[in-house]
Amino acid sequence: MQLDRFDRQLLNLVQQDSSLAAERLAEQVALSPSAIQRRLRRLREQGVIVRDAAVLDPAQIGRPNFFIVSLEVERERPELLAQLRAWLNEQEHIQQAFYVTGEVDFVLIVTAPHMEAFEALMSRLLQENANVKRYTTNVALGLVKRGLNIPVPLDEAE
Q: Which of 62, 99, 122, 138 is paired with 70 by a 20 to 30 Å CA distance?
């Protein structure tokens, strides 16, 4: 999909705050509110904008703990990886899962209200996924930065 400068500006703005009304976006992008709405609809229909979400304060909702988990699998057969990916996608405590290069196969970002909930999830992971060889965990001591924004250069050449 070809993105012009207006699309790129919009994408940067809605990543910062997807609740902005078309009128407010129009003030910053120099297009009419109706043109903004058409562009946003097109960007959603074409899969550039995958979804809109609210960013919550984990401590305010009882989910203050973050765990970074590295998984190593026994065999990298496609059907076994697909099964593990499906299982990871179903787990609400797993916020992000990356298939990576290097010494481990997956890196997970997990949130849980307390250590017992995290341990229960990891126990189920091993019980329900025989192909998982081992995992290691890093406990986040503090949150320095959290986000999903992808910088969108205003010009294609950037």
A: 62
Predicted local confidence at residue 155, as pLDDT: 85
Tokens of 90: 């179903």
Domains of the chain: residue spans and CATH:
5-45 (1.10.10), 58-139 (3.30.70.920)
Distance of CA 97 to the CA centre of its chain: 8
**What is the average pLDDT value for the chain, to the nearest integer?**
94
Tokens of 9: 């500006």
Structure tokens that stand for 110 in this block: 């997990």
Q: Alpha helix (H) ranges present in the chain?
A: 5-16, 22-29, 33-45, 78-90, 115-128
Distance, C-alpha 50 to centroid of its chain: 11
**Beta strands 65-73 and 106-112, pairing class:** antiparallel
Contact criterion met (CB below 8 Å) for 111 and 55? no
Per residue in 106-126, pLDDT (tens digit) is 999 999 999 999 999 999 999
